[in-house]
Each structure stands twice: as C-alpha cells, then as structure tokens.
Amino acid sequence: MKLELASHSAIRYACLNYHYSKSIPANCIGFSVFNDNMEWCGVILYGTGANQYIARPFGLKQGQVIELVRMALNGKQESTSKALAISLKLIPKLLPMCKLIVSYADIDQNHNGTIYQATNWIYLGKYNEGSRSAFIVHGKKVHPKSIHSKGVKQNINSVRKYLDKNAKEFYTKGKHKYIFVIDKSLRHLYSNLKKQYPKNAAVA
Fold it and tell me: Which candidate in 11, 64, 111, 154 could, as Cys together with 144 as Cys, close a disulfide (CB 3.0–4.6 Å)?
C-alpha cells in the first residue's frame, strides 16, 4: 500500500463519488491511497483550519490541531485501518506544527468509529445529540451553511418561504468524537479523558 499527496482533481472525484456527503471540504490537504497493485483507491483528507476554534478545547493554538474530514475510499484498498495509520505517520512531516487530530463518526450514518478504534484513537464521547444540524429541502439534507450561502436566513420560516414550503428541520443523533495525539509529550494529558469505545461499531 502506498500514499502520496492528493491532487485537487483526485480529492474532488473521491469526495463526490466515494463519500456519503457528496461534498468537498474547504481548506483541506490529503493523501491518495494506492493498493499493492498501484490501483487508486480514493483519498484521506485532513482539514487545516476551517474551524478557527478547533484547538481551543485542548489548550492549543490554531495550526496545532487539525481534523480528519474525509475517508473517501472505494473499497479496493487492502486495509482501511492500515491506510489511515500510514497517513497519520505522514502528517508530522507535512504539518510539523500539528500536535493533535480530531475526527467524528456520524451516528446518523450508523458510524460509531471502528476505524478509529482500530488505530488507537482516544474516544471522548458523544457530541451534539438532538441539535438541529440541517434542513430537509426538496427531500435532501442541506447544511445550514449552504442555506446561508443562498442568502437565506438559517431558520425554518425563511427556508420554507424562499426555498421549499415543505422544508423540515433535521435533528441529529449526534457524533462520536475521537482524537489522535501526535505529540507524545501530550498523550498523558488526554489519556485520562478516554471513555469506553462505543460497541457494535460500523466502519466510519
């Protein structure tokens, strides 16, 4: 298995064809994954600052914390966990300031984080359960940021007035939050926060 820096075209194709969200994250870098036959299998992407507060909960600075934002793979890779593990080893070379990586398993997609458990991430628990995470517009789930980009206020009355009179609010089951600590000197600080992994996990 081999990983190399992913091109924009590879990122775009993998996100639109291999990931359930069918969207391309902003401000991302990543790796193309190739199996032993050098067949391209998709990309693993990390975000480098779309959320300006991502480092705050850990007492770190912007640039020291990034997010694993996509595992957009087509299933032809020999081992998803091995591909992720290789990418984690490459991050310090690519982003030497990075000390910690955050990622989420989407419970609405029946993801509990098997891939993070297999690669020894620290599980911090469930977040945002019951919050409004999207709108259902013309039968499709639309993120509030996309609503805002259309010039429509992020409330159900405005969405129904300007986009779809039958629109509904979507309330999430939440996400499982995991962290992977790159900086070994910090691992003891977060190991005490570790919670028991959720059971019966589906591959995230």
Answer: 154
Domains of the chain, by residue range, sit at 2-129+174-191, 132-171
Identity of the residue numbered 172: T
Distance CA 153, CA 196 (A): 39
How far is C-alpha 48 from the chain's CA centre? 12
Question: CA–CA separation, 92 vs 196, rounded Å?
Answer: 27
Summarised one tens digit per residue, pLDDT across range 120-140 is 999 999 987 777 778 899 988
Spatial distance between the Cα atoms of 94 and 96, rounded to a whole number of angstroms: 6
Q: What whole-number distance in Å separates Cα of residue 145 and Cα of residue 136?
A: 13
Residues 129-176 pLDDT 10s: 777 778 899 988 888 878 888 898 988 999 999 999 999 988 888 899
Phi and psi torsions of 189, nearest 5°: -70, -30
Are the CB atoms for 72 and 42 separated by under 8 Å? yes
Read off the tokens for 34.
Answer: 């190739």
Strands 100-106 vs 65-73: parallel, antiparallel or unpaired? parallel
Q: What count of other Cβ atoms lies within 10 Å of the Cβ of residue 50?
A: 13
Question: Which CATH code of 3.40.640.10, 3.40.710.10, 3.40.630.30, 1.10.10.10 fits the domain covering 2-129+174-191?
Answer: 3.40.630.30
Helix (H, G, I), strand (E, B) or coil at 168: strand
- For the entire predicted model, the pTM comes to 0.81
